[in-house]
Each structure stands twice: as structure tokens, then as C-alpha cells.
Design a protein that fits this description.
It contains seven helices and 14 strands. With about 280 residues, it is of the alpha+beta class.
């Protein structure tokens, strides 16, 4: 089975490489650039006359890869992604990784995290992740775009060091958070404290966050004044905890609303469970 699969793939690659329009960096020109911060690690290579190959590992998420042609017409029908042997690796069989669809409007090829990791592994072994398409500019020629493995291992070491220093979450993951409470309760659970720890850690590292809004809510069970009081206790409990772990008190605005703003109708136990909450909202400049 393996032989039947690899043999046609070898023939396809050898034939297409002869007749295809090929873009890749030369040995002399291949360079990897790393942009590193606590929020993301971006490892990229310029592919001359074509565009950019970019690995991006954002805080709190898995690595992804995007091939960014300067023109969006190259991969209108998508592409096959294969790890091929470099010219100095004769006899190594190509390895199929995935089929990739172009993103609307941009024409970029976005590779899912699992396959992006396969690309990194292939590059570390000296192989070239290669995208192929049957048509180039609507001609009979096929298109091949390869990511060069030249100088990759040293760049990869720096990339790994960057990923170790990433925050455990990114802005999107903490910008809007809801902490839920049991009926008539306002004390924080261990899970709620862990979530608030992540929010505080992010805020301490992102100077663009200028405000934190803490809003307490309740369901509609019981009297309105009682519900308003318990929503106040919940909001104050969250604010007190955030301050206790180092957040600046002047950056926090604490409010409480009782049952006035349900996120869903209070017409079932499940919905009432969702309405007993404190929301934490981050605001940037």
C-alpha cells in the first residue's frame, strides 16, 4: 500500500518539477526572520518574486502557517502540500501533508496547526514544504512554491526559545470573560480564581489595556433588591480578588445590575445558571 502511494507521488513530483513554474529562495538568499514577544512568535521567510512564508505562534494557541502570495490569483483552486527532499538529499521520498484551500479575498493559503507542525518537523530535517497547483496564471504550466530549509535549524532554536516565553493566553481569550456562580452564592471557586489569575497576568503584561470593567449580575429568582445586593457582592468579590493578586485598583470599574441584564431569558434552570455571573471586560487604547 505504501509503495503504491509513494511511487505515483514520486513520479508526480519529478514530472511537475520539470514542467512547473517554481518559486523558492536560493541557498544564498534563504533567510529566516524571527519577530519575538510575549504575545507571539513569528518566523518568516521571503520567497523572491512570490511572497512570504510565515509561521505564527500566538500566545494561548497552536502554531499556524500562512503562505502569502503578493497576488491572490495563484492558488484559486487550492494546492497540495508535500514535504520534498532538498536538492542535497537524493533518494528521500516526498511526504504528503495536506490539501489547502485559499482564503477568500486574500488568496492566502492557511495551514491548520497539526499540519503546520508537520511542516516545522520537515524543515528541521532539511526537507522543503512545497505547495503545488495545476495552473499558473491560467496557463498550462503548473506552479510550485517551496519553503527553503537553508539556515532553518538555528532559526528554529530561537523560535522555540520564544515560544517558551509566551503568555498562556492572548487578548481575544481574556477580553470578555464570564464568571458563573451557584444560586445565592458570591464566593469564588478555585476554577474562577484560576481564570482571574490568567486575566490579571495578561493585563500586567499588556500596557495597551487601560481599563477593566467588572459587572455583577443575578437571575430573577427572589426579590429585586436582594438580587441587586447579591450581584453587588459578586462584583466586589471579583474586584477584591483581582486587586489581591496585583492589579491596579484605579484601573478597575466595578458595577452591579441585579437581574436587569440577563444574557438569556430566565425561563429555565439552565438559563438562570448562565445569568448568575460577573463579566470582566478589558478595554484597550
Amino acid at each position: 500500500m505504501f509503495v503504491r502511494f509513494v511511487l505515483p507521488l514520486l513520479l508526480l513530483c519529478s514530472v511537475s518539477s520539470v514542467n512547473a513554474m517554481t518559486f523558492r529562495s536560493s541557498i544564498d538568499d534563504a533567510k529566516w526572520e524571527l519577530e519575538a514577544s510575549k504575545f507571539s512568535c513569528r518566523l518568516s521567510q521571503l520567497i523572491p518574486a512570490f511572497g512570504d512564508a510565515v509561521f505564527e505562534h500566538e500566545a494561548g494557541e497552536s502554531v499556524r502557517f500562512v503562505l502569502k502570495p503578493t497576488e491572490n490569483i495563484h492558488f484559486q483552486q487550492g494546492a497540495k502540500l508535500v514535504a520534498e527532499a532538498a536538492p542535497w538529499q537524493p533518494g528521500i521520498a516526498p511526504r504528503y501533508i495536506s490539501s489547502v484551500k485559499p482564503l477568500e479575498r486574500t488568496g492566502y493559503l492557511k495551514v491548520e496547526p497539526d499540519h503546520a507542525q508537520n511542516m516545522l518537523a520537515a524543515l528541521y530535517k532539511g526537507m522543503m514544504p512545497t505547495f503545488t497547483s495545476q495552473e499558473w496564471y491560467g496557463t498550462n504550466e503548473s506552479l510550485r512554491v517551496s519553503v527553503s530549509a537553508v539556515n532553518f535549524q538555528s532559526a528554529y532554536s530561537d523560535y522555540v526559545a520564544c515560544t517558551v516565553g509566551l503568555l498562556p493566553v492572548n487578548y481575544r481569550q481574556v477580553a470578555r470573560t464570564a464568571i458563573l456562580f451557584p444560586s445565592a452564592q458570591w464566593r469564588l471557586s478555585d476554577a474562577s480564581r484560576e481564570r482571574l489569575d490568567l486575566i490579571a497576568l495578561y493585563v500586567k503584561n499588556d500596557n495597551s489595556v487601560k481599563g477593566v470593567f467588572v459587572d455583577g449580575h443575578s437571575d430573577n429568582m427572589g426579590r429585586r433588591l436582594m438580587n441587586r445586593d447579591i450581584s453587588k457582592r459578586r462584583a466586589e468579590e471579583v474586584t477584591a480578588y483581582l486587586i489581591s493578586i496585583g492589579m491596579e485598583p484605579t484601573s478597575i470599574t466595578t458595577r452591579y445590575h441585579g437581574e436587569r441584564y440577563p444574557v438569556v431569558e430566565n425561563n429555565s434552570k439552565k438559563n438562570r445558571d448562565r445569568n448568575r455571573r460577573v463579566t470582566i471586560r478589558l478595554e484597550r487604547d
